[in-house]
Design a protein that fits this description.
heterodimer, A: 732 residues, alpha+beta, Calcium-transporting ATPase, cytoplasmic transduction domain A, seven-stranded mixed β-sheet, six-stranded antiparallel β-sheet, 26 helices, elongated, B: 58% helix, transmembrane (chain B), transmembrane helix (chain B), Cbb3-type cytochrome oxidase maturation protein (chain B), membrane (chain B), Cyt_oxidase_maturation_cbb3 (chain B)
Chain lengths: 732, 57
């Protein structure tokens, strides 16, 4: 099956080779890499195998003339699950960007080191016996190194600044570019006129520091993104299509056409919307609607992509992907939500909005001041440029990315992926938390909740019936009955969509839906009609009085503690669920959440969010279902568990892994610490400016002072950011 | 002063050498998999092939 899938991702490589990238799950050590490279390398026709442990990906090349080697088959034989991957589709842009930045950093680093070497000689020569000719020679050599380096390594900043100016606003890159270009330009003039001061070293070391910050920023983000991409790609991407001749072949989901017949095995997610043709089964819609109670599907039932088949295999006819499908509706809502969200301006950009004009005004004032005092044009210009160099927001530009890098790394260790670049900043601002219920606060797995009402004998009987069924309620029953001696039964039969039956001491006993278990019994009419609509219950009959088993969705182990901790930190929590009112009410009560809303459609969830935003709230939305996706996109900032629907994970700013909710709290905590550090860093760089600017205006800033001040301020900002690594992980 | 005539070229040459080495290592993809590189040294056979060319995009 995998071969049909792989075709889609194969790219030509060179004249006569084909290339395929695979994401391989479970590759963790040298042994795994070795096994994969050796194993695949031994296959016929394979010319190149390279495993990448950082990205958990493997690149394979083979001769195109040969048949496609059985790559995924070989890998699964070796014990690895592999999924083809297309770097072109999934944003390999970041990788390329990272490499470009690293190259620029290397060039800037080389230039900075060598120009500094010459500058130090000039500085020490100023107080000793250096001749004017020697100094001029040194300046010329510096110029030869620095000018090409600035032209090449400064491009990321120049481009960004140009783009901002063209759009009619300024960003941090405008003063950076201006300072770098002016200092290089002025130094060139100084060099030509054999003057004393050249600022080549300042110009290139500025670039070096800034490029390091920018590279780390890109790197941290692309790492988190690649982990997220791997998670998504490892989901089943193939559908088993039943061909007209009756054979089954695997087809990528995006190549499904309306009218195709697909077979959906037990435990698989439906790859597309469709209508059931054959088979009776239960469908778990929790990821799509948030409803925990499985719905019965029989021929003629409409089923939706993303739902899971719990029971017997189904044959489904794919229906057109028209605008009436649920997915299309969700996508439409998401697009609308996205438009409403734009407009957040990052902290650094907000600062630079004031910073850049202020600095430029200051430089102009300096020039005018010197002219007014009767100095020549040249002196005035030199001092004005010195102001621009000294105020180049090097520390300011490092203040945010360095903290981001450290914080992203910390969160990654805890299984939290930061997907969006402004996510951390926004997370520090939140004042309200909205939770989805199913799959977010709960594990999405049912649990028996009325154990105290049930006799041991009944449970042992029900446990015996349920033991072999894969239905989630049966599995919950088995867990509840674990450790009990099970009753001896025979003739166990599973009735898809209805329940189970068996013989016990000569009687037929039934376990399952009420209508099935109590069929033809007098109790059927008077047994608790209030719950007759609630299908998350099983009835047991045939052994005496019918007995009811109620199930609720099990909460994540630390849900209560985390909700409490969030509330204690002054973050009110609201529950928004697509599940039934009474179930949501019970969950809310258990978690001490007073504000909740059940039976929400995706539209109602968005409406609740908008209402909160209209009140000036900044909402963190945490959800996993398809029905949460529009909300995740619309919210101020959003998170979703790694078990969430693909579309929700794509929409969310953060993804957390694992069974626990603790990462939510940890992320908020780290985000708040990060913001504090960022503000401290801003403080540091402003303090440095407060000292340096008056000196520059008065004309006391020599290249030596500029170099020392700039390095010192950058290093102090970096050191401050690294303090984040010293904070301990929150105790669980 | 004559010393400068050969000392400066030597200094620049060494720096340039470092830069070229760095650019070469970047071009041959040696920074693509830092975790893997740390583990590869544990492979037993010595004739492990280096990647024969940079991966082009």
């Amino acid at each position: 099956m995998a071969q049909a899938l792989a075709d889609h991702y194969v790219r030509p490589h060179g004249e006569d080779e084909a290339e395929l990238d695979l994401i391989v799950d479970g590759m963790h050590c040298a042994g795994c890499m070795n096994k994969i490279e050796k194993g695949l390398g031994a296959l016929d026709g394979i010319t190149y195998v390279r495993a990448n442990l950082s990205t958990k990906r493997v690149a394979v090349r083979w001769q195109r003339r040969a048949h496609i080697p059985p790559i995924t088959e070989k890998l699964s034989e070796l014990g690895f699950e592999a999924v083809p991957y297309d770097p072109q589709i999934m944003g390999a842009l970041d990788e390329e960007q990272g490499r470009d930045l690293l190259r620029a950093t290397g060039v800037a680093g080389f230039a900075a080191a060598n120009v500094m070497l010459l500058s130090v000689s000039v500085w020490s020569g100023l107080v000793s016996d250096m001749e004017v000719e020697t100094r001029a020679l040194f300046h010329w050599i510096s110029a030869l190194i620095a000018l090409p380096a600035v032209a090449y390594a400064g491009q990321p900043f120049f481009k960004s600044a140009f783009k901002a100016l063209k759009a009619g606003h300024t960003n941090m890159d405008v003063p950076i570019s201006l300072a770098v270009i002016l200092s290089a330009g002025m130094s060139l003039v100084q060099t030509i006129t054999h003057a004393e001061h050249a600022y080549f070293d300042a110009s290139v070391s500025l670039l070096f520091f800034l490029l390091i910050g920018r590279y780390l920023d890109v790197k941290a983000r692309s790492k988190a993104c690649s982990v997220a991409q791997n998670l998504l790609a490892l989901r089943a991407v193939a559908a088993n299509v039943i061909m007209p001749d009756g054979t089954i072949s695997a087809v990528p989901v995006d190549r499904l056409d309306p009218g195709m017949k697909i077979s959906v095995a037990s435990g698989m997610r439906l790859p597309a919307d469709g209508v059931v043709l054959e088979g009776v089964s239960d469908i778990d819609k929790s990821l799509v609607t948030g409803e925990t109670v499985p719905e019965t599907a029989a021929p003629g039932t409409k089923v939706f992509a993303g739902t899971m088949n719990l029971g017997a295999a189904l044959t489904v006819r794919v229906t057109a992907r028209n605008d009436e499908t649920l997915l299309a509706e969700i996508v439409r809502l998401m697009e609308a939500a996205e438009q409403g969200r734009a407009g957040y301006v990052r902290l650094a950009d907000r600062v630079s909005r004031y910073y850049a004009p202020a600095v430029h005004a200051l430089a102009a004032a300096t020039l005018l001041l010197w002219l007014a005092l009767g100095a020549g044009w040249q002196t005035g210009l030199i001092n004005a440029v010195a102001v621009l160099i000294i105020t180049c927001p090097c520390a300011l530009a490092l203040a945010v990315p360095i903290v981001q890098v450290v914080a992203t790394g910390r969160l990654l260790q805890r299984g939290i992926l930061v997907k969006s670049s402004d996510g951390l900043e926004k997370l520090a601002d939140i004042d309200t938390v909205f939770f989805d219920k199913t799959g977010t606060l709960t594990e999405g797995k049912p649990e028996l909740c009325n154990r105290e009402e049930i006799l041991d004998a009944d449970l042992s009987l029900a446990g015996a019936l349920a033991a072999r069924s894969k239905h989630p309620l049966s599995e919950a029953m088995t867990r509840a009955a674990a450790g009990m001696p099970l009753a001896e039964i025979s003739d166990l039969q599973e009735h898809p969509g209805l329940g189970l039956s068996a013989t016990w001491r000569g009687q037929e006993i039934r376990l399952g839906k009420k209508a099935f278990a109590l069929e033809g019994l007098a109790e059927a009419e008077n047994a608790q009609p209030a719950h007759s609509t609630n299908a998350s219950e099983f009835w047991l009959s045939g052994h005496g009085a019918p007995c009811r088993f109620l199930f609720t969705d099990r909460l994540r182990p630390d849900a209560e503690a985390i909700i409490h901790a969030l509330q204690a930190r002054g973050l009110p929590v609201k529950l928004l669920s697509g599940d039934r009112e009474e179930i949501v009410a019970a969950t809310a009560k258990r978690l001490a959440i007073t504000d909740w809303q059940g039976e929400c459609t995706p539209q109602q969830k968005i409406a609740a969010l908008k209402a909160a935003e209209a009140d000036g709230k900044r909402v963190l939305m945490i959800g996993d279902g398809l029905n949460d996706a529009p909300c995740l996109k619309a919210a101020y900032v959003s998170m979703s568990p790694a078990s969430a629907a693909d579309i929700s994970q794509t929409a969310a700013d953060f993804i957390f892994q694992g069974q626990k909710l603790a990462p939510v709290l940890e992320a908020v905590r780290i985000a708040r610490i990060s913001r504090r550090l960022v503000l401290q860093n801003f403080g540091l760089s402003f303090a440095y400016n407060a000292v340096a600017i008056p000196l520059a205006v008065m004309g006391f800033v020599t290249p030596l002072i500029a170099a020392v001040a700039m390095s010192a301020s950058s290093l102090s900002v970096i050191g401050n950011a690294l303090r984040l690594n010293l904070t301990r992980f929150q105790e669980r | 002063m004559e010393a400068l005539l050969f000392l400066i070229p030597i200094a620049l040459g060494l720096g340039l050498l470092g830069l070229v080495a760095f650019l070469w290592s970047l071009k041959t993809g040696q920074y693509d998999d830092l975790d893997g590189a740390a583990e590869r040294i544990l492979f037993e056979d010595d004739n492990e092939e280096a990647p024969e060319e940079p991966k082009e995009k």
